[in-house]
Amino acid sequence: MAIITPRLDSLAADGTNEVFDGIRLADGHMLTLKAAPGAEVAEVFLFPGLDAPDTEAWENEDDWEGWLTGGEFEDGSLYLDVPVAAVRDLIVDHGGEHDNQEPPKESHAGTDEDTTAQAVAIRALAERGLTAERDEDAGNSWLVIDNGATYAVLCLFDRDGDETNIDRPVNPDHDNWYVGKVDAQGREVTMTYQPADGLADCVQAIASWRAASDHLVRPEAAPQDGNAQH
Question: What is the rounded distance in angstroms from the CA atom of residue 228 to the CA atom of residue 131?
Answer without folding.
Answer: 28
